[in-house]
Q: What sequence folds into this?
């Protein structure tokens, strides 16, 4: 009888896709932190080689906001947030916002399959040894994947989403950062 209870409990569950995708996975805590301009730290600077062999240097994008999404292909919340990032890139890329992914685990094949599946067209940098995250100097909490940073036009962290990014939250944060430059 005791065996049947866990089995029944395992069979019952939410039909909510986000809940199902996160089952058995520990990610960021969902906290959104906004940092007012006068309280922001020094600009972040990080470099890498994208999966397609291009050079990426965050400092070269100063003058425009930058969305940095930390992810990997088999991360359930990363899969949940991918449509929101795709939509934000489509809308806000046209407004001058730059986007880059930082992939903490995957080789080129799994990363490309994820990007194709979800229609992600902005570049990603592989970071299996953590060198890119280390360059972010504590802005990304350890083991909080996904995490999304929004850098202002000066390259300073203006906001952080620890956990899956919701489209409306991401767009609201981007609107705030864009309004600073207006």
A:
């Amino acid at each position: 009888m005791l065996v049947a209870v866990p089995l029944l409990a395992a069979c019952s569950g939410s039909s909510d896709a986000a809940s199902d995708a996160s089952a058995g996975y520990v990610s960021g805590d969902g906290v959104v932190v906004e940092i007012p301009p006068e309280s922001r730290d020094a600009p972040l600077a990080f470099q890498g080689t994208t999966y397609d062999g291009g050079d990426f240097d965050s400092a070269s994008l100063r003058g425009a906001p930058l969305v940095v999404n930390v992810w990997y292909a088999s991360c359930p919340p990363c899969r949940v947030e991918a449509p929101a990032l795709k939509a934000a890139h489509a809308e806000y890329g046209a407004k001058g916002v730059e986007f880059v992914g930082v992939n903490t685990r995957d080789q080129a094949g799994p990363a490309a399959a994820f990007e194709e599946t979800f229609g992600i067209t902005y570049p990603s940098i592989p970071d299996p040894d953590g060198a890119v995250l280390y360059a972010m100097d504590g802005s990304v909490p350890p083991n909080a994947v996904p995490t999304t940073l929004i850098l202002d036009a000066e390259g300073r962290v203006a906001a952080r989403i620890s956990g899956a990014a919701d489209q409306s939250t991401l767009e609201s944060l981007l609107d705030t950062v864009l309004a600073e430059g207006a």
Summary: The first strand starts at residue 32 and ends at 34. The longest helix spans residues 76-93. The radius of gyration is 17 Å.
